[in-house]
Amino acid sequence: MSFPISSGLLDAVVLSVLEQEDAYGYRITNLVRSRLDISESTLYPVLRRLEKNDFLTVYDRAIDGRNRRYYAITPAGRKQLADYRRDWHVYRTGIESLLFPGGKP
Q1: Percentage of residues of the chain with pLDDT beyond 70
Q2: Phi/psi at 8 (nearest 5 deg)?
Q3: Cα separation of 57 and 68, whole Å?
Q4: Strands 66-73 and 23-24
Q5: How far apart (Å, rounded) are the C-alpha atoms in residues 90 and 57?
Q6: Distance CA 12, CA 103 (A)
């Protein structure tokens, strides 16, 4: 892809995935990687940052005798996601008006 993915956009994507359901890191990674070209190691720092900012909570669940770490969006995370969506709409509209001055192709 020619365009870099910003940390804010990654935050928004992860919060959006977790808005649907709680998930563990590998599942989140696979969901995001199905749409964006990013490395596996990219999302774990995003998850830690979102947790540090109180946008996610973390809990462990035993699966087949092993603990699996799950992530869940918090009310503050839902508010932040709404802000990201609003900002994305403004950003996307502005960029599209420059790239496609006569309207969408």
Answers
A1: 97
A2: -65, -40
A3: 14
A4: antiparallel
A5: 29
A6: 27
